[in-house]
Amino acid sequence: MQCNYFDHGRCRSCTLMGTPYADQLHAKQQRVAAELAAQVPDGAWRAPFASHESHFRNKAKLVVGGSAQEPTLGILGRDGAGIDLRACGLYEPGLAATFDELARFITTAGLTPYDVTTRRGELKYLIVTYSPDDELMLRFVLRSKGLLAKLRSRLPHLLESIPRLRVVTANLHPEHKAVIEGDTEVPLTDEVALPMRINGHTLMLGPQSFFQTNTAVAAGLYRQGADWLSDDASGSVWDLYCGVGGFARHLLSPGREVVGIELSADAVHNARAGLPEGARAQFHVGDATLTTDALPQPAAVVVNPPRRGIGELTGFIERRAPRTVLYSSCNPQSLARDLAALPSYAATHARLFDMFPQTSHSEVLVRLDRR
Ligand SMILES: C[S@@+](CC[C@H](N)C(=O)[O-])C[C@H]1O[C@@H](n2cnc3c(N)ncnc32)[C@H](O)[C@@H]1O
């Protein structure tokens, strides 16, 4: 993939830009296999699951810079000035197609971008998520409530100019911090969740919930998870760190009950809301690492933690001794450490899912069977 922003030094986020995609994938596979060599035997690896090398991102986190008259949507340079990256080739086309309209809205509504050096202005980021049904969720990240009235009064114009907008919210982020969003979310539309249809399952995505950024690769990951657990079709299956229920929904089957645990109340609310009638699934808000003995004995456990991995949960899995564990990880280092802390399990299947082309990041799914 070629990128003018990269070539001209305006953005260096994609560290593998310019490397032929087949070479990227091969190198990633070699690296994760080497990093996991002590835990995953060579024979366990399946062929990597490839992505489109461009136009794969379903979510844009755009720093708003410049002025209301001439906003930039992209990143900030070292000097704190906005760099416009509207033509970035990573975004899905239906997502990128909204950027010019959003910039026009900033101008016509007079939304002043936040300036990190003077700490003046209001609009910090636009976070836009694109669904497989060509619908969008838009979040305005604001320094204060100052723009809320204006946003509310201009909303009909915005919805008219981008009719595919299904959910619009304002996120209040008063602090000057590296994290890009605050805790308070103010809905501006009646709809507060974006339906994300994936492999025929509709997952409801709320503004503050996690969703995999590459929808096509996420679809492959969930299908693979369901396939690798198809011989454990009865009993209870836990989906720990379940988010809005991506794995859980793919694991539903007659004779099986799925229990999801997730820290985000917003995600659990939407995981429940998206369930089909009669589905044997329950979702609980909680810390997966503190999961108690009160839950039914699992036949299988799925874990999909943040980068830090599952930590002390390994001891819990050892004690509860499910037959099978599926571990989906975005960090080979914490994955290697956690697999080493599960001595009663052997890695029998492993696969790289290239969720993040053009970068060295990788998602790896491993199936562990009790020895
Ligand atoms: C990598 S995401 C995976 C989400 C989901 N499995 C999916 O495919 O969309 C990790 C999730 O773990 C949640 N999380 C973080 N720490 C947690 C904890 N200690 N206990 C439960 N969930 C946690 C996050 O809110 C996030 O939804």
From TrEMBL:
Pfam families referenced in this protein's UniProt entry, alphabetically: tRNA_U5-meth_tr (PF05958)
Matches recorded under CDD domains = AdoMet_MTases
**Protein origin, superkingdom:** Bacteria
Per the record's keyword annotation, is Methyltransferase included, yes or no? yes
- Drop me one GO molecular function for this one: rRNA (uridine-C5-)-methyltransferase activity
Please name the catalytic residues of this protein. Answer: 330
Query: Which biological process terms from the Gene Ontology are attached to this UniProt entry?
Result: rRNA base methylation
Does Methyltransferase count among this protein's keywords?
yes
Question: Which residues take part in binding S-adenosyl-L-methionine?
Answer: 212, 241, 262, 304
Q: Which UniProt keywords apply?
A: Methyltransferase, S-adenosyl-L-methionine, Transferase
InterPro entries, sorted: MeTrfase_TrmA_AS, SAM-dependent_MTases_sf, U5_MeTrfase_fam
Q: Record's PANTHER family?
A: RNA M5U METHYLTRANSFERASE, TRNA (URACIL(54)-C(5))-METHYLTRANSFERASE
Q: What does the sequence similarity comment in the record state about its family?
A: Belongs to the class I-like SAM-binding methyltransferase superfamily. RNA M5U methyltransferase family.
Protein name in the entry: 23S rRNA (Uracil(747)-C(5))-methyltransferase
Q: Which organism is this entry from?
A: Epidermidibacterium keratini
